[in-house]
Write a structure and sequence with these properties.
The chain is of the alpha/beta class and 274 residues long. The chain has one domain: Protocatechuate 4,5-dioxygenase, Chain B, CATH 3.40.830. It contains nine helices and eight strands. The strands form two sheets. It has a six-stranded mixed beta sheet, with helices on both faces. Helix 1 crosses helix 3 and helix 4 runs parallel beside helix 9. It starts with 10 loop residues before the first strand and ends with a strand. The relative contact order is 0.21.
């Protein structure tokens, strides 16, 4: 049995919350839930801010026909949310890009058989800048963004993650940003239904991630739609798919839940591999 390696950085799947929650006075109506998420993200940044030389972010909010690597030197901001106060469209997280790392990402993907595309103009979306404002407020770590692939095929995204695993030995911190529960109708319904469904799926997801048989873990994730409350938790899977990339990048390293809380009444979790 291969145990976790200590000479490479771990991989994270984190919940990024809803919209620009981190700058809203009322924390989207859930100061307790978002307060705990803030505490978790700040601890993550404090622990790995000096260990990592660069960030690679895979956000639920970027999909392309091909895996697309951002080569921009100084990405701007992409305010991909609607109906929030005007000031939320002026907040900034000015981490520099890293074209050298982008080239490494591109090369690894191509060596694994993927056709890729390049991007230079797209700004940081809120799946990136909102949690990173909390984890790395100094915005001093060069950051590369990598898209999801349209179709959201679990096996493809696990394979993408596997291609990226060598970066972990090069002091690159891979952060996959999504939500373990994401159903807007469920959030609006609230109440016991939301709590029950989100916990039911979260319990299954935790057991799948913490499986010590890596091949079985990946098979469970590929067939996630068979899980209890799966489609009630993710009518569309874009917020879950970054987790598949994380599981792939984990290689033979084990995964475990390293944060769990409730946001707007739903159970949400973060997972760490390695």
């Amino acid at each position: 049995m291969i145990m976790n390696s200590s000479d490479k950085l771990p991989v994270f799947f984190i919940p990024h919350g809803g919209g620009p929650w981190n700058v809203m006075d009322d924390s989207m109506g859930d100061p307790e839930g978002y307060g705990k998420l803030t505490e978790y993200l700040k601890k993550l940044g404090q622990e790995f801010g000096r260990k990592a030389r660069s960030l690679l972010i895979i956000s639920a909010h970027w999909e392309e026909p091909l895996p697309t690597v951002h080569f921009g030197k100084n990405p701007g901001m992409y305010y991909d949310y609607y109906g929030f106060p005007e000031f939320t469209y002026h907040i900034e997280w000015k981490a520099p890009g890293n074209p050298d790392l982008a080239a490494d990402v591109d090369q690894l993907l191509r060596a694994s058989g993927f056709k890729t595309a390049h991007e230079t103009e797209r700004g940081y979306d809120h799946g990136t800048f909102v949690p990173m404002m909390e984890a790395f407020p100094q915005a001093n770590l060069p950051t590369v963004q990598l898209s999801l692939v349209q179709g959201l095929d679990p096996a493809i995204h696990i394979a993408i993650g596997k291609a990226l695993e060598p970066l972990r030995s090069e002091d690159v911190l891979i952060i996959c940003s999504g939500m373990s529960y994401h159903n807007m109708r469920g959030f609006m319904a609230g109440g016991n239904y939301l709590g029950r469904v989100s916990k039911q799926f979260d319990d299954w997801l935790t057991a799948a991630i913490e499986t010590k048989d890596i091949e079985k873990r990946n098979e469970l994730l590929i067939h996630w739609k068979d899980a209890p409350a799966a489609l009630e938790s993710h009518p569309r899977s874009e917020h879950l798919v970054p987790l598949f990339v994380a599981a792939g990048a984990a290689g033979e390293d084990f995964g475990y839940k390293n944060f769990s809380g409730t946001i707007m009444g739903a159970t949400v979790s973060s997972f760490k591999f390695g």
